[in-house]
Every structure is written in structure tokens, then in C-alpha cells.
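Annex B, item 7. Sequence and C-alpha cells for protein A, then protein B.
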Amino acid sequence: MSDILNKEDIANLLPHREPMLLIDELRNIKKLSTATAIVNVKKDSFFVQGHFPGQPVMPGVLIVEAFGQAAAALTAHGIPKETYENKLVFLMSVEKAKFRNPVIPDCKLELNIEAIRSHGKVWKYKGEAFVSGKKMADAQWSATIVDRK
């Protein structure tokens, strides 16, 4: 298993596809524990076109979505393929989300995530988002792995 996953590797782990596959890279992977995800927030990213014209900002809910995708990729990368194959990961709860600074394109958003615990198919995570070392957001969330219908 590689220490760095590119967008293609991530797409092989997650059911998300463009334009909703937000994570460009996963690095510093410690199996089922921690990782750093990279989101390249560009001026032409779909989510900044109307949010807000003339002063683009990445929506906070998509920062939370990126946290969730990073956590799902970390987990899928560390478990057997048959455990996540033909499955979806659903966000169950978001707690303590704080948006400290606006994420403005063009930037590299770094998400440091940690798996706090798992119980069966339910996982709990926490994460912090940074741009150039400045904290932009943080949150805790829970997710579960479910069968595709």
C-alpha cells in the first residue's frame, strides 16, 4: 500500500465521482488512524461559481463533505476490499463544526483527519482544515458503511 493516494486511487476506493469527488490526494497515511487529504480549491471549481460572484468562497458544508470523503478513503484504504466493495458511506452526524476563516480559491486545503473509534460499521472521526498553516475549520463526525441498494 502506498503512502500517497492520487485522485485515481481515491476514486477506486470511494463511490464519489466528478464533480463531487473533492479529495485530490491522500498522504501521511497511518492505517485506520490518521491521514492528510489535499483539496485543490480552484477559481473554476464548480462550488465557487455562484458562491459568491466576485468574491468566491468554498462553502462550509463542502469542507465537511471533504472531511467525510477523506475519512472514507482512509478507512477503505485500511480495510479489506470486500468490506467496502459495492457499499456506500453515509454521514450520520456532524458535531462541533467550526468555520474559522473563509477558504478562498486558488489554494491548497489540507485536511488532517483522525479516526477516533469504530464500533461495527459506525466510525467516528475528527479533523482540522488548514491553508498555508492557518486553521480554517474543524469538526467531528460519524459515518457508516451501508450496502448499495
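Protein B:
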Amino acid sequence: MGKFYDEAIIPSELRRNFDVYDRVSELGIDLKSQDEIVTSLAGRNIAGAVFHESGLVYLSGVGIGDMPMSDDPDVVAHGQDAGRQCAEHHIRNLHWALKCGGEGGDLNDVLYTVKALGMVVSTDVAFNSGPAVVNGFSNRWQDVFGGGTGHYAEDGLDPGGYAGVHARSAIGGFTGRFALEPEIIVAIPPDLSRAIIQNRGWIFPLIPSMYDKVTGG
């Protein structure tokens, strides 16, 4: 695990016993390159991630999918696949948000997941499959960070840990030309969060001067 994780106050029974990047690799999740993901905040009015000195990291929502949702099983399956893509987007952004400044943090320093909110696009007043659609997102998150509905779970239990399990709201009724927009909050060691804020600020993407500092531009 990361040095910050090793020093965190977590009961031994809840400590993760696997390298997150092993699961990322086995699952075929592309984290892309620093040049592709680490950008300047110039011209943007919304952050992809915000660090709080308490250790909370807030990740903005991302909308993915080709259609609004209904209770049709094929449509729900499309939404679940979109949810998995949303989770991979957040994992990718979180990786580079933690790593790009060289403070020593990475995905292995995620202590646990706090809360996810899944907003599902559907104008059908009888729509009941919002939670099922957002399960695509939640289950993919547990694939990577641990949880009883993830890929590595056996009989509802993950031998690696439960850092991916989160509180959640999953609601439908929104308009749009996509399937869903989830957002998520995770907890990292406060010492790591403070190191990030002190070195390059609390915003990702980075303000232009910090972008130049991190990339050598």
C-alpha cells in the first residue's frame, strides 16, 4: 500500500490486502497518460475533483450513454454499461489527481468510499430501474476498490476488502441525451490531502501556474 495508507487509522479487519493497480490491470481499465488527463483549469468553470484538508475528495459527475433509460431490460443493460464507463472515468481522474504532483499518493491511498449519487435520465413517470442502472457504476467501483458485489467477490464477500462500498442515492427523472450522471466522494489520508493542497492546491484540473509547476511547462 501507499505510505500514507500504511499510517492511516483503519482497523486491521478493514485494511485492504491487495494492490489496487493489480485489479485495474486485470480488469483492463485504461488510466491513459498524464499528458492526456492532467490539464490546465484555464477556460473551465467546474473542477473534476476537489480536495478537502479533512481527506475528502469530491469527484464531479460525468454523463455517459446514448439514450434515456426505461425499464426495458436491454435499455437497462445499456445504462449499466454506461455506469461502468463512468466509474472508469472517475478512477482514471482520481488516479491522476492523486499522483500528478509527486506528493507520494495514488489509488492505493484511498481509505474508503463515502457516497455516490447516480442521476438517471428518464422521462418515463413509471420508471423503476434507476437503482439497477446505477448498479453498473457501483459494482465497477467495487471491482477496483473492494466490495461484495464486485468482480472479485465470492458468495457476497470480497476477500480483499470493502473500500469500494459506499452510501448511495440512485434516482431517475432527469432529461438529457445520455443514460446517467454519477458523482462520488472518497476519503484519503488527511496528511496526503494536506500535502496535495500545500503543493499544488485543492483543484483538479490545475490552475495554470500549478499546471506549469507540475508539468515543467
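Comment on protein B: Residues 5 and 61 are 26 Å apart (CA to CA).
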